[in-house]
Design a protein that fits this description.
60 strands, about 35% strand, 11 helices, Stalk domain-containing protein, 5-stranded antiparallel β-sheet, about 900 residues, single chain, mainly beta, signal, Mao_N_sf, Cu_amine_oxidase-like_N
Length: about 900
């Protein structure tokens, strides 16, 4: 007997389940970028530089639909979008936007061939809203067109009279390497007006056909050329099927640029609405570190004066399963800083060398006809760097190695190889750096070695010519001993730019072999980046400092400060809140903060929450002057360490400028908090509370719900202009307020509160206009998230071979909460290792057996039944069983998949 799962429940589970992810926890959380709430993957991760967040320019700008161009001769990036032209020279702190100069906090620089720029530059150049969440290390970009208006509908004899809203945005992600629709993941939130929507249609459009692509065109696309999704969730994440087609009817394929739209289809009496397009997406092979060659070395092995002198060795990729060969590129060292996988793909086959994979680490000699990437024959007297690119069986460029040592052909000795660099002490100078390197194999031809310390930002231009020209104060000499060396550098050593070696600056180390007699010097590859720190561990910075003028005493009692605590307080001793005159703020640094007298700052203990503090009548600024009206101030927070981090403090950035004045400001509320009952998985589970500080001059309180990734830009000015429908009004009171949100509560932008997104609550104290005239905004509450309810999986799964069949038994979850039924599936063992929840959700109802909830927990498959692929079950084939717990769509909406059973085969009768 075969039973069917409710189709609506299964499709709902299919579309929702892909959106659930459990974040991994690590000691060093990488910086993430989200665009309109969806994470962006780039080939160069964001980094911190000079206390500024640096993001990859090309990856971010192209995701925002800008075109990016690189000019090697001038080392200049040019980006264009919608009539805006941005020109940015590498290494410069000045860029131009439509011919007007702008200044960057720190200069743009190149990391592994990718240009990175300060986060603020993205906002200033393209006009998008950019936020930073220090606790999650997330850069959030909100595009100006993320909330489109409803497109014009086609005229029909019976035009519907009721409109629906389009979905706010569409994002895409390449998640596979198959070269078809299954590589493409689409995510979007539900329309704000779910009533009247019959379904959503995912439309994949060739980028060349996307202008114009409107709702009229979308409505005429045949059903075979879009993916239909039933309406029923608040957020959708869908991976397309391998046979998915674009709107022209062509199969989705590699090396084609697409835009994705979502059409909200109106039911009878409602219009349809088309979203704005996603950023351009192109399928391709996803590079992984395991598929990239490492430890590339170049050696001068002869004296022919051409490519025959050139020997290249490298360590093969640890996973060669997708590779057919490697390509070896010889690049002039002067151009190596900008050479990338993208550049490699443009090089003619006559200007690189192909090496087939052999399962061993390759060594190859070039030929007298070998050319560099510019097409010139390899010759003596020119410095070269070698790169190795991994190539798949389909001819795709899957990733590029790091560059080799720089090699100039001639009578050149083999360069040493750096194996380790370490911070071994706490002198805050060269004595903290210890370098280990392997000796040159030709020590009979050298007189010794020189060690150079180069700032990372200058390492792209550091080559053998630069090293040969440095003064003796900028390197140390190391004698040869016949063995590999480990040396600790000297206190007097300067870096290659002549500056003192200090803490908190990223460096790279180079070692040069000094040729004797007629032999030329040879320079190693750069070491990994080393940044000196004092102490064994450091404490994290606070973020989100907000300052408010909350009263009219004319002294410190008017100044209220809120900030987000350090993300990890395990090493935090306490916080010191310091008030600095704005004219001195640019010179206020960690050293200055550490020396401030205890009478000139406010010290507060950590308590696990984000602090809100108010100064007292006698409070002073860091210079010892009383805080008063009429002076421009900025606030800093010094985080002090304890234990292994004792004495290793960290200083926040400055707050905005505040000038105390007699402004009739209301008092901000205290102790804003939320609790989550998690009983209904709706906004009504959330209860907020706050304590009024002083209700004098207050007419009411307004409670706002703000997405955590948008909290960085939510301030008093924004709060004062929020529409009345988008906040909760609370009557004036002097006692603690505790109240639940409702299922219809919206965030401050007017969007429905959705599941699996973090939010915070703020409270605005509204002035009555007579006693007080200025509103005041509280600090943020703790984060809350409404979670998507998931059913529990079956356990104790067992598959047993019997005559003519396979018997499957399992244990049901306790209580079977939220479960409608179970789908019992047989999967061929050969493909069971990759069988996932998403795969199970896609299995046709004809290809599994249904077990009713609360009845029994076993099923016997015979040769009249089929596996998940619809193939008849037969002897001689090994299978594993899985059980899918099916959500009922009310208590729970996400299915759960059991682990696989042991392998079983039918015993022939």
């Amino acid at each position: 007997m075969k039973k069917k799962i409710c189709s609506a429940v299964l499709v709902t589970a299919l579309t929702v389940s892909g959106g659930l992810h459990t974040p991994s926890v690590s000691a060093a959380t990488p910086i993430k970028i989200t665009i309109d709430g969806v994470q962006l993957t780039t080939d160069q991760a964001p980094v911190m530089s000079a206390n500024r967040t640096m993001v990859p320019l090309r990856g971010v700008f192209e995701a925002l639909d800008a075109k990016v161009f690189w000019k090697q001769s001038t080392k200049t990036v040019t980006a264009t979008k919608d009539g805006t032209t941005i020109v940015l020279p590498l290494g410069s702190k000045t860029a131009t936007i439509n011919g007007k100069s702008v200044t960057l906090d720190v200069p743009a620089k190149s990391i592994k061939g990718r240009t990175v720029v300060p986060l603020r530059f993205v906002s200033e150049s393209l006009g998008e809203k950019v936020g930073w969440n220090a606790s999650t290390k997330t850069v959030s970009i909100t595009t100006t067109n993320s909330k489109p208006t409803t497109p014009t509908q086609p005229t029909t004899p019976t035009t519907p009279s009721t409109s629906i809203s389009p979905v706010p945005y569409v994002n895409t992600k390449v998640v596979g390497q198959q070269g078809n629709g299954n590589d493409l993941e689409i995510s979007f939130p539900a329309s704000a007006s779910t009533k009247g929507i019959s379904q959503y249609r995912i439309l994949v459009v060739k980028a060349s056909n996307s202008n114009p692509f409107n709702v009229n065109t979308a409505l005429t696309v045949p059903a075979a050329n879009y993916t239909a999704i039933p309406q029923g969730s608040s957020n959708y994440t869908i991976t397309l099927m391998p046979q998915a087609r674009d709107t022209d009817g062509a199969l989705i394929q590699k090396n084609m640029n697409y835009r994705v739209y979502v059409l909200a289809v109106g039911a009878t009496g409602y219009n349809s609405a088309l979203s704005v397009s996603s950023p351009i997406v192109s399928l391709g092979v996803v590079a992984t570190a395991s598929a990239i060659a490492t430890d590339v070395k170049a050696s001068d092995v002869s004296d022919n004066g051409d490519g025959r002198d050139f020997s290249v060795t490298f360590t093969k990729a640890s996973d060669e399963s997708k590779l057919s060969n490697y390509r070896v590129f010889v690049v002039k060292t002067t151009s190596a800083g900008s050479f990338s996988a993208t550049e490699a793909a443009k090089i003619s086959s006559s200007n690189y060398t192909t090496i087939n994979k052999t399962g061993s680490n390759p060594t190859t000699r070039l030929t007298n006809t070998t050319r560099d990437t510019s097409g010139e024959l390899i010759t003596t007297g020119t410095a070269y760097t070698v790169f190795v690119v991994s190539i798949t069986s389909g001819g795709d460029n899957i990733g590029i190695s790091a560059g080799s040592n720089s090699l100039t052909l001639g009578r050149t000795v083999e360069a040493p190889s750096i194996t380790k660099v370490e911070d071994v002490s706490n002198y805050a100078d060269g004595r903290d750096i210890q370098v280990t390197f392997t000796k040159s194999s030709e020590e009979s031809k050298i007189s010794g070695y020189r060690v150079f310390v180069v700032r990372s930002k200058a390492s792209g231009d550091f080559d053998i010519a630069t090293a040969n020209g440095l003064a003796s104060s900028r390197y140390i000499d190391v004698s040869k001993t016949g063995s590999d060396r480990t040396v600790t550098l000297a206190t007097s050593l300067k870096d290659s730019g002549g500056e003192t070696i200090v803490n908190d600056v990223p460096y790279r180390i180079y070692v040069m072999a000094l040729g004797s007699g007629s032999y030329a010097n040879s320079l190693s590859s750069a070491s990994s980046t080393l940044t000196l720190k004092t102490g064994d561990q450091t404490v994290g910075n606070v973020s989100g400092i907000a300052v408010s003028d909350i009263s009219d005493y004319g002294d410190g009692r008017d100044l209220q400060v809120t900030f987000n605590k350090a993300s990890d307080e395990s090493l935090v001793n306490n916080y010191r809140v310091m008030v600095v005159k704005s004219i001195n703020a640019s010179k206020f640094n960690l050293s200055t903060a550490n020396s401030v007298s205890s009478s000139n700052y406010l010290q507060i203990s950590k308590n696990g929450s984000n602090p809100t503090v108010t100064f007292s009548a006698g409070s002073k600024d860091v210079n010892g002057d009383l805080i008063k009206n009429g002076t421009n101030y900025q606030v800093f927070v010094l985080t002090t360490g304890t234990g292994n981090a004792s004495g290793n403090n960290s200083l926040s950035g400055a707050s905005s400028v505040i000038t105390l004045a007699s402004n009739g400001a209301t008092s901000a509320v205290n102790t804003v908090a939320t609790t989550n009952s998690a009983s209904t998985s709706t906004a009504s589970d959330i209860t907020f509370s706050f304590v009024p500080a002083n209700d004098t001059g207050i007419s009411e309180y307004r409670v706002y719900v703000v997405r955590a990734d948008q909290a960085g830009s939510f301030n008093l000015s924004v709060a004062n202009n929020v529409a009345a429908a988008n906040y909760t009004r609370i009557a004036k009171t002097a006692t603690k307020v505790t109240q639940a949100l409702t299922t219809s509560t919206k965030d401050y932008n007017g969007n429905a509160i959705v599941k699996d997104v973090a939010y915070r609550v703020y409270v605005l104290s509204v002035a009555d206009g007579s006693v007080r005239s200025v509103n005041t905004l509280s600090g943020a509450s703790n984060d809350f998230t409404i979670t998507t309810p998931t059913v529990a999986p079956a356990t104790n799964l067992n598959a047993t071979a019997i005559n003519g069949g396979i018997k499957v038994t399992f244990s049901k979850p306790s209580g079977e909460t939220g479960i409608a039924s179970y789908a019992v599936m047989l999967v061929p063992s050969a493909s069971s290792g990759s069988f996932s929840l998403a795969d199970a959700n896609r299995v046709s109802e004809r290809n599994y057996e249904t077990v009713t909830k609360g009845v029994y927990s076993e099923w016997t498959f015979t040769t009249t039944d089929v596996d998940i692929n619809g193939a008849a079950i037969r002897s001689g084939v090994a299978y594993k069983a899985f059980v899918l717990s099916i959500a009922d769509g009310r208590v729970a909406t996400v299915n759960a998949l059991s682990v696989a059973s042991r392998e079983a085969q039918i015993i022939a009768q």
